[in-house]
Amino acid sequence: MKRKLAELSLKELWRLFPIILTAHQDCWANWFKEEAGLLRENLPDVGRISHIGSTAIKGIWAKPIIDILMEVPRKERLSNLQGRIEKCGYICMAENNCRIDFNKGYTLQGFAEQIFHLHLSYEGDNDELYFRDYLQANTAIAKEYEQLKFNLWEQYKYDRDMYTLHKGDFIKQYTQKGKQLLAGRYSNK
User: Fold this and answer.
1) Measured in whole angstroms, how far is the alpha carbon of residue 130 from the centre of its chain?
2) Which of 73, 87, 111, 118 has a 20 to 30 Å separation from 43 between CA atoms?
């Protein structure tokens, strides 16, 4: 009997889907554009759809996973969009009142060729945009972030939670700097 991903333990999932870093690939921008087009076609009423995460920052190594931030108007209930997102091939991974996170490209055989993490949030809940823009504008800081990820890679190759946790202070610091420098860039008018 074939098991489903949802039936695997966290330890089994981390073994099947280890942290992998790779040099920046130009195709990532196109993968984002194609996926954003699919999402926009199936969810025309959503707001901004943005490419976030390290794959959106040229010149640094990244996990080959396209992170997408999709913002929706506050009048919309996030849960009302879940079914339409799942019809686009996504699996709901986590949810709370303010966000729902989805993954696409995870199989029982490991990673598919294209992997996506979709972060569904309300308009204005977009700190990731400030972090991305700050790193895009500050190559030296982007390289520091890349080095931090290299340092964590082998130690936490099979523990995504710890890998993410140990990047947290760096991300907070430079998100705040980005918000100060780019104040209001992504506020809703």
Assistant:
1) 14
2) 111
